[in-house]
Structures are given as structure tokens and as C-alpha cells.
UniProtKB/TrEMBL annotation:
<dbReference type="InterPro" id="IPR006047">
    <property type="entry name" value="GH13_cat_dom"/>
</dbReference>
<comment type="similarity">
    <text>Belongs to the glycosyl hydrolase 13 family.</text>
</comment>
<keyword id="KW-0378">Hydrolase</keyword>
<dbReference type="InterPro" id="IPR017853">
    <property type="entry name" value="GH"/>
</dbReference>
<feature type="domain" description="Glycosyl hydrolase family 13 catalytic">
    <location>
        <begin position="26"/>
        <end position="431"/>
    </location>
</feature>
<dbReference type="GO" id="GO:0016787">
    <property type="term" value="F:hydrolase activity"/>
</dbReference>
<dbReference type="Pfam" id="PF00128">
    <property type="entry name" value="Alpha-amylase"/>
</dbReference>
<dbReference type="InterPro" id="IPR045857">
    <property type="entry name" value="O16G_dom_2"/>
</dbReference>
<protein>
    <submittedName>
        <fullName>Glycoside hydrolase family 13 protein</fullName>
    </submittedName>
</protein>
Amino acid sequence: MITPGMSAPRGTPETDAWWRDAVIYQIYPRSFADGDDNGTGDLIGVTRRIGHLADLGVDAVWLSPFYPSPMADGGYDVADYRDVDPRFGSLDDFDALVEAAHGRGIRIYIDIVPNHTSSAHPWFQAALAAPKGSPERDRYVFRDGIGPSGERPPSNWASRFGGSAWSRTPDGQWYLHLFHQDQPDLNWSNPEVRAEFDDILRFWCRRGVDGFRIDVAYAMVKDLNEPLRDVVMVPSHADEVTANPDHPFLDRPEVRDIHREWRRILDGFTPPRVAIGEIWLPTDRRLRYLGPDKLHQAFDFDFLLCPWDAAAYRAVIEEAVDGATAAGSVPTWVLGNHDTVRPASKFGLPPGTDLTSWLMSDGTAPPADPALGLRRARAAALLQLALPGAAYIYQGEELGLPEVADLSPEQLQDPVWERSGHTAKGRDGCRVPIPWEKSGPSLGFGRAAGWLPQPEGWSELSVAAQTGDPGSTLEMYRAALRARRALSSGTRFTWDRELNVGDVLAFRRDDHLILVNTGSAPVPLPPGEVVVASADLPPYELPGDAAVWLRTG
């Protein structure tokens, strides 16, 4: 077992706050690297590819769930929070990965999934076998239904995967699942649930984990007073809490008491551990989760959702920087993750494209412009990496991978496909195994074909193909991460009042001037030494849909 003393070297207040300007690389283990050649990525594969992450220059790795799971939701249905699914390896393999990462100066984050367990979790199996009103059922949210025989769900609450958030058990009661029916929600009013997760955090901290990404960090506590309140259902959680300010199961104030207890646990380790929340809420409500006694960070999804428009970016950036600073935190910049369409495709679509409909058309309606999408994604990456605060990169973004929009119905494994009645493909298109080599049955992912097929043409997007090519997306990321280390930490930056107009974003960090042109026409390029650029630069011009860092001091 890895002990706290084997964590990545730190030890002063300055280095204990490393997370404030860190670059964290998200790994979806199933799709990163296959170490045992069975078609599924695993922890051995991650360990073998740790050199790629060190060469890239990231500060930490965030591992999506690797716990024992029936995989009803890609591993976010956890059956055992203190072990590794045999598909991904063993606890020994996890310890070896932590040791290898720490040996290269890379810290490790893992996912904690506290809103729900798998239906295969021993607790839920015990609840199904126990009678109504039993202690076993009180760990979850069981309720009688409405109607003469309880034939209707207890409320109108909806699953984010489609359909009702309630499923009926053989004895007639209903249980709550805000996501898949095989992901029953825990009852966070139960002290046993709270004690269990306190211990889970300590377990992984003792194994050398440096931080935690908290899944659905704003939806754990529910108002379960009878009668349960119906809500106005809208497409997103952020809109839903706006329509229902006192929401019965989202953004309850009691959830922040849980985070305070977790912060005390994390601060009790040497060095202190870090927590970032997945919080799909409006900015003013998201900021309530941050502070010296709460979470360290929360994802700013407004940046991810922002259209390719300079004015929109200005507003998002200013709000994020000002809000995080006031909360005693830092902004967290993210372009994509395991749940969203890849930026290299999204940026190549007309403004306002409905991405669900686009995926249902196999990526043909409307047609994407791959060259434009990649060009903008590269520029957006340089914007992301130049901004003050922490940056999160999803695996494959450094290769410029596009969304695989044409997966067939037979290939889809995301539960969204079935739960939506085949009206939404889901998230498999951003989870296709990444290419490492120019050839092989899965382009170096493993010696066998991967669990999802890679498109033709991905050979030229592989790590091997891009390494050493100065014009490649991979080498641009490597150069940007090297250059980023020259920027001072903290959240301060200044807009350049003269240049920051129209389609151009312009701001200064130390002696660097960062320019992003979101328009299609070139703009004059000020004097300065080019540090890194997202496109070839003609003399004295910054082309459209491009970005550059200049050293002007």
C-alpha cells in the first residue's frame, strides 16, 4: 500500500497550493490504454503510458471510476468503493500506478460517486431483501407510490437518462434513481451513509491519492418530507434550479455541510488533499460550494459551453475569475470531458447546433467542418492554458481527436441510448479508445481491437504520428505546457484595453501577451517573440480562428 509519505513531494504552504494553477489530465480508464490486451483499457495500461503524460507536462491525472461495477453507466455505478474492478486490474496495480506517477512528479485524482451506488452494491441487495421501513432500506430512498395500490411514482422527478427517476420493487415500493435505474440514490440523511463515505475518503488518502473529483456534488441531499414536492422539469440541472429555487433534490444547502466535513478530513492529511466538485449550476450558486472550509474548486462549465465568440468569452472569463477570487478559489477551465462532444467537432458546427440531433444524424446534419473545428479547438486550447487558474484536459484533446459521431446502434453502450427510447445516442462518441501507434488492431491501444471501434484516419492522429511534427496538435500542447510554467501563479491578469476589441481577445500575463482571434479575417500582430501559436503566422498578422502567445518584455 502507498502511504502518505510516498505522495508526490510537497511540504510548504506554496507547494501545498499546487492545485491553484495545475494542469490536470482526465483519463477515462476504459479508453486510455489496454495493458492486458482484452480490448478494455486498464490501470496497467495507464502506468505503461505514464511517460506520455510526463512528456506532455501535466501536473496531475484524474482517473474516472475504476471500481467494481456492472458498467450500467460506464463505471459510475459503483458496487464497491474500496477496490478495483478486475477489468481494470487490482489494488496492487493501483498502488503501482500511484508510485509510478509520483515518481514522475504527477499527482493522482480519483472519482468519488456519492449520490448513488450500483444496484449490485451489497447495501442495495440487502435493501431489496429487507422489509419496508427496515434499516437496510433507510440507506437509500424508498417510498410508497401514489394511487389506490401505489401504482404511480411518488413524485414527478425525472431521471437525467430519460423516464421517471423512480423504479418499483417486487413488493410494491419505489426507489429513487436520478440517473440509471441501476444507480439507486443514497439517503444522505442517514448517519451510516455519511460515516461510510468519510471512511472511503480516508481509505484512498492512505493509498496516496492526492485529490478527488466529486461526481454530482450538488445532488446528494434531498428534501424527503412528505408529501414529496413535484418540480418544474427542464432540460438541464442549471435551468431546473433556476425554475425551482428551493429545489427538493438539487443544490440543497445541507450538501455543503457534507463538503465541510470532507474538507476537514482532507486537511487532516499531510500534505492536504484536494477536492473539486462537478457542479452544473449557475455561477452564483456554484460559488457557494467554494471556500477554505468547503471545496477547493468547482468546474466552470460556462467556459465549456461558450460559443466561439470573443464577447461571449470575455463575459465568461471575467465572471469566472471575479467569482472564484471572491470565493477564495481559482477558476477551472475545461473544454471537454467524458460526457460532452469533443471540441474539435463542436467548434466545426454552425452556432446553435443541437448536438443530440447532430449525433443522431451520424454527424451529417448539419455537416461539420473538421478543419475549422480543429483550428478553433487548437486556438481554444491556447486560450484555456493561458488563463489564470487550473486547466483540465480530457484525454485525446492533445491529439485533436474529433467526436466519433457515426457509431452504429449495435456499437452503442451508453445507457442514454436505451433510456431515451433510441432518441439520443449518448456519450460513447467521446469515449472511443485513443490511438497511440500508426498501425495495429487498435492503433497501439492494445493488441486486440478496442471496445469501441476507431475511425479510419486516426492513424495520422496517433501519438506516434504527431510526435516530432512541429505543426501537430500534440507538439502545440507540449510547447504550451512548457511555456505555461513561465507564467506566475495566481488569478491576476489584465485585459489589453487597446487590443481587446471586436473579435480579438487580448490579455497580459507577466511579460506575455495572449491574443485570440475568433473572427475569420486576419488582424495585425503586435511586435513580440512568438512563444507558441495555434496556426502558421504570416508576417505581422494573426489569422482568423487562431491564437498566439507573445513575449513582449
